[in-house]
Design a protein that fits this description.
Layout (H helix, E strand, L loop, with lengths): L1 E5 L3 H12 L3 E5 L3 H8 L10 H10 L3 E4 L2 H6 L3 E4 L15 H13 L4 E5 L7 H12 L5 E5 L9 H6 L4 E4 L3 H10 L10 E4 L1 H32 L3 H9 L20 H14 L5 H24 L8 E5 L14 H11 L3 E5 L4 H7 L5 E2 L3 H5 L4 E4 L11 H7 L5 E3 L2
Parallel strand pairs: 1-2, 1-4, 2-3, 4-5, 5-6, 7-8, 9-10, 9-12, 10-11, 12-13
Pathway: Nucleotide-sugar biosynthesis; UDP-alpha-D-glucuronate biosynthesis; UDP-alpha-D-glucuronate from UDP-alpha-D-glucose: step 1/1
GO molecular function: NAD binding; UDP-glucose 6-dehydrogenase activity
Family: Belongs to the UDP-glucose/GDP-mannose dehydrogenase family.
Length: about 425
């Protein structure tokens, strides 16, 4: 099938590349000329394990191409995905749909023949209906079906998630669109991936509800970790014990400094705003978002309490800057809150991350120094904090780390 993917961010680039690896003919579109030129040169705008090799293979096979010409890509496509950003809107926390709406207008003008327009971007319930109205208003004669097909990709494991998904959710009541989407995802039938067809509004809600539930699970185990510290429990053992219950499961029960990234913070906020406007506030998720922000702020205080020297002039080594391992994504990373709170108290920061330091420099204070490795990061520090659970940190020589520290205080944030 001929596919156009509007947006070459995390979701668009991974999805478009994987579709091309299935054998579909995919054109990825972005208005950023320099980004497209870098992609044509094989330079990835994001770090995702295995993505560069997958892109190179499908470009070489003639199944994947990159362009800034949206009109040409859409005119030739049977399926057009909208995979542009939906950041939190300033002031009210709603998802900013301006990029989604702009893409819909351009698609309406360029579509040729029956075209399935699919929202991959995370959008609030009702967005599909709005896009249908926008397209009809721009081009009344357009033969277009608007479909919701939310993504459920984990950064760091996105290719595996796309090719072996837990489920594929498709929101449409158009029989022609349903057949197109079945054909598009047919390569996954060998993996017996559940293909759930439902109403468009349901599909839009499923995405937000999934992220909100996982955020709630993370926040629950983090609060339990605080209780364990006070009463002498081991949160890892407690998490293992409750995770063995098949009704609960072990995933997202790893205590840490709070959730971050591009999805959970903005999606929980957008869901609560939608619920408030509908007159059915979701108090549980409102609390989850508040508790998560409080926890990230509290992590800096935990580090200060661990110091055996006065904060001003002390050096803290921070291992791990990205919000999770196997990505260079710094969006809403707990490391930002931790480091800023320490810098505000006069602490010197030396940091190291396996792939995230280039992105970290864009958002962290200028005073942060960057090391070339974990042991160099620890040298002469008064405290060592492991924030992100990179595999590269799992087998560190703790005796060597201790010898590198000026005052050997180590604490893994939980």
């Amino acid at each position: 099938m001929r596919v156009a993917m509007i947006g070459t961010g995390y979701v668009g680039l991974v999805s478009g590349t994987c579709f091309s690896d299935f054998g579909h003919d995919v054109t990825c579109v972005d208005m950023d000329v320099s980004k497209i030129e870098r992609l044509k040169a094989g330079i990835m705008p994001i770090f995702e394990p295995g993505l560069d090799e997958l892109v190179a293979r499908n470009v070489a096979g003639g199944r994947l191409r990159f362009t800034t010409d949206l009109a040409e890509a859409v005119a030739e496509a049977e399926v057009v995905f909208i995979a542009v950003g939906t950041p939190s809107r300033r002031g009210d926390g709603h998802a900013d749909l301006s990029y989604v709406h702009a893409a819909a207008r351009e698609i309406a003008r360029a579509a040729n023949g029956f075209t399935v327009v699919v929202t991959k971007s995370t959008v609030p319930v009702g967005t599909g209906a709005d896009l249908e109205h926008i397209i009809r208003e721009a081009t009344p004669e357009a033969d277009i079906a608007v479909v919701s097909n939310p993504e459920f990709l984990r950064e760091g494991a996105a290719i595996e998630d796309f090719k072996r998904p837990d489920r594929i959710v498709v929101g449409t009541d158009d029989p022609r669109a349903r057949e197109v989407m079945k054909a598009l995802y047919r390569p996954l039938s060998l993996n017996a991936a559940p293909l759930l067809f439902t109403e468009r509004a349901n599909a839009e809600l499923i995405k937000y509800a999934s992220n909100a539930f996982l955020a709630m699970k993370i926040t629950f185990i983090n609060e339990l970790a605080d209780l364990c510290e006070k009463v002498g429990g081991d949160v890892q053992e407690v998490a293992r014990g409750i995770g063995l219950d098949r009704r609960i499961g072990p995933k997202f029960l790893h205590a840490g400094p709070g959730y971050g990234g591009s999805c959970f913070p903005k999606d929980t906020l957008a869901l609560t705003r939608t619920a408030q406007e509908a007159g059915t506030p979701i108090r549980l998720i409102e609390t989850v978002a508040t508790v998560n922000e409080t926890r990230k702020a509290a992590m800096g205080r935990k580090v200060l309490e661990a110091l055996s020297v006065p904060p001003r002039g002390a050096t803290v080594a921070v291992l791990g800057l990205t919000f999770k391992p196997n990505t260079d994504d710094m969006r809403d990373s707990p490391a930002i809150n931790i480091i800023q709170s320490l810098v505000d108290r006069g602490v010197k920061i030396r940091a190291y991350d396996p792939v995230g330091m280039e992105e970290a420099r864009k958002v962290l204070p200028d005073a942060v120094m960057y090391a070339t490795g974990p042991y160099e990061c620890a040298e002469g520090a008064d405290c060592l904090v492991i924030v992100t659970e990179w595999d590269a940190f799992r087998a560190l020589d703790l005796d060597r780390l201790k010898a590198q520290l000026r005052t050997p205080v180590t604490r893994r944030i939980r």
